[in-house]
Amino acid sequence: MSGGVDSSVVAALLKQEGFAVRGVFMAFGQPDLAAQVERVRKVAVALDVALDVVDVTEVFRATVLDYFRTAYLAGRTPNPCVICNPNVKFGRLLAAAMELGADFMATGHYARLERARERVRLLQGLDPKKDQSYFLHRLGQAQLASLLFPLGGYTKEYVRELAAGFGIAGVHGSESQDVCFLQGSTVVDFLETHGPTPPAGEIVRGDGTVLGRHHGIHRYTIGQRRGLGLPDATPYYVVGLDAGNNRVVVGKDEDLWRDALSLREVNWLAGKPPELPTRLLVKIRYRHGGASAIIAPAGDGRFSVRFDAPQRAVTPGQFAVFYDGDEVVGGGEIV
To answer: Catalytic: which of 180, 182, 188, 291?
Structure first.
């Protein structure tokens, strides 16, 4: 339970269905922890459920914050939710819930689970605007078997109506933000207050021609247009980050398109890959609509993805996630 509308409605729904429900709150070192816990306690009281606060600060720092900072300093654009889910939320927090005697842990994710005889299938949420299956692609079968996603078949609008019907519309708090630990801060502010960051350096074209100066590669990401200070007849975009030489590489829009990419640390939700090569729909970021591509082994534990049509702004550090219809098949980090 975070205190937001989604997890609050989940608790109310499960009580209504006859489950014995208790809440667990994930404390990861947030600066306003006391205020957040108090907000969640009000929801728990309103729903008449017990609440346990689980301290995950150590594992959160080691697996999420360190990853987030290291990726940006290496010229990659990370996705902390993808890393948090298997290691913290459905890692340490799930373990704590099981230690408390739970049979399942339920969350407010907009995704669906289908329990077949041989395995648990992860499916997209029915609300295309809220589907969060992308962020769950690194989970394993043991984790999926212990989870419930009661909101996967609902729209956000209907969930708000349910909250009003349960009498908790005025009790739950505001929506969670995308990167929970930033809490109103920017990525740049966070990085620059948590240790040294890369110095200023050169902005170059792909052929090495120097066009200007940047303010630290951690301030830039692939596809970025603003903040480059490079006036021209057509805009420049960031097309690469060369951490080794502390350079930001720029080009024109046509330089942003790629027809293939390489992946590392690919997770297959079934526990093993399908017969490869195979054609699947691939999303290269959360808000990407998906594109048809052939996935094949590429040696050294990596996999190649070759698209039927070039895709814009393929970004190292982000995750490419594979779908077969509405089922999540797997995914890995773009390198």
So the answer is: 180
202 strand-pairing partners: 213, 247
- Residues with Cβ < 8 Å from 308, sequence gap 6 or more? 291, 292, 293
User: Looking at the predicted structure, is the pLDDT value of residue 203 above 90?
Assistant: yes
Q: Burial, 128: exposed, middle or buried (Cβ in 10 Å; 0-12, 13-18, 19+)?
A: exposed
What tens digit of pLDDT does each residue of 26-85 get? 999 888 899 999 999 999 999 999 999 999 999 999 999 999 999 999 999 999 999 999
Which of 84, 295, 313, 321 is labelled catalytic? 84
Q: What DSSP element (H or E) covers 162?
A: helix 156-165
SS3 46: helix
> Would you call 180 a catalytic residue per the annotation?
yes
Taken in order of first residue, the domains within the chain and their CATH numbers are 5-165 (3.40.50.620), 198-251 (2.30.30.280), 257-334 (2.40.30.10)
Q: Per-residue pLDDT averaged across 155-160, rounded? A: 95
Active site residue 81: no
Backbone angles phi, psi at 210, to 5 degrees: -80, 125
